[in-house]
Amino acid sequence: MFTGIVSDIGEVIAMQPAGEGLHRLKIACGYDRASIAIGASIACSGVCLTVVGTGEEGARTWFAADAAAETLKVTTAGRWKVGSKLNLERALRQGDELGGHMVSGHVDGLAEVLSREDGSDSARFTLRAPAVLSRFIATKGSVTLDGVSLTVNMVAGDDFSVLIIPHTLKVTTLWTLHAGDTINLEVDMLARYAARMAEVR
So what CATH class is 8-90? Predict the structure, then answer.
C-alpha cells in the first residue's frame, strides 16, 4: 500500500527482456541501498513493482524490477525508456504518516491530458478518464496520477481537473505534462468499493 506522496524521482538506466513477456528495469534512485529489501514494493509513477535486485553505480543506488506484459500494455511503462524519469514511493510501514490517500499501486487505466493552464507558480490540468472509470471520480475526491495523490476540483462527464501546487510541481514529474500526454490513473479504492456495494444492493 502507498499514499501517493512521492519521495524521490528515479531514472530508468537500463531495460532488457527477461523472458515470458517480462522486461527487467534498472532504476536509479536516491534511496539508501541498505534500506531496499529484495521483494519490497516500490511504486514507479503509480505502478507497483517488486524489487528483484539492488546495486550502486557511482554515487547512485539502483534497484531492478520486472514489468509483466500486461503492465507494459495497460500503463505508461510500455513507453518507458532509458532516461525516463519516474515518481517513486516506498511502500507504507507501520507508523508512517498517511499524507495522501490509500493507494494500491494497481493502475486502472490511462487518463489523457486535455489542457494545461499555468499560473504564476501552479498549474491546472484538465484530463479525460476512460468512461468505465469516470464514475469513480468525484469533485473533492481523490485520484492518483502517475503515483501522485491529488484532489479533484471539477468533474464534467468523463473530464475532470486537478490543481498542482508549486511543491508538487517541484518534487514530481507532473511539471513535464502537456496537452495530448497520457498518464497513469488509479481511482480511489473507496469509491470503487462504494459503487460495488451499491450495485449489489
Answer: mainly beta
The answer to whether 69 is a known catalytic residue is no
Identity (one letter) of the amino acid at 95? G
pLDDT tops 80 at residue 150 = yes
- Take residue 97 and report the three cell numbers written for it: 504518516
Asked about 168 being catalytic, the answer comes back as no
48 is annotated as an active-site residue: yes
pTM: 0.93
Q: Are strands 123-128 and 142-145 parallel, antiparallel or unpaired?
A: unpaired
Q: Which of 68, 91, 138, 191 is labelled catalytic? A: 68
Q: Does the annotation mark 151 as catalytic?
A: yes
**Per mean pLDDT, which range of 110-119, 146-155, 188-197 is the poorest?**
188-197
Give the model confidence (pLDDT) of 55-65 as tens digits.
998 889 999 99
Which of 43, 44, 48, 64 is an active site residue? 48
Report the topology of domain 109-200: Elongation Factor Tu (Ef-tu); domain 3 (2.40.30)
Does residue 50 carry a catalytic annotation? yes
For residues 9 and 64, give the distance between their C-alpha atoms in angstroms, rounded to a whole number.
15
Catalytic residue among 106, 139, 176, 179: 106
7, 18, 40, 50: the catalytic one is 50
Same fold, 8-90 and 109-200: yes
CA dihedral over 173, 174, 177, 183, signed as positive or negative: positive
Please write the tens of the pLDDT for every residue from 130-141.
Answer: 999 999 999 999
